[in-house]
Amino acid sequence: MAATGRSYTALFVVLSLVLMIAFADVAQGYNKLRPQDCKPKCTYRCSATSHKKPCMFFCQKCCAKCLCVPNGVYGNKQSCACYNNWKTQEGKPKCP
């Protein structure tokens, strides 16, 4: 009888892990954009700056690589780790 209880526990643990992995993939995919979604997202992201051309250039470059653009016109980069962590050779943020 003890072996049966352990097998149910093991099955429960395995199913729980499978569900956690599945939900983690769904959560990561939530911020993923398609390449054609980059321009509209970057247009909004760069709407508040006076340097629109360089902002659009780098935002679209970052979006093409990361398939993610943070929400809002400034900040919120933590919502897109790739976008946030991509740096220039001088160590400054590459993405606006």
UniProtKB/TrEMBL annotation:
UniProt entry tagged with the keyword Signal: yes
Organism, scientific name: Artemisia annua
Highest taxon, organism lineage: Eukaryota
Range of residues in the leader sequence: 1-29
UniProt family annotation: Belongs to the GASA family.
This protein's name: Protein RSI-1
UniProt keyword list: Signal
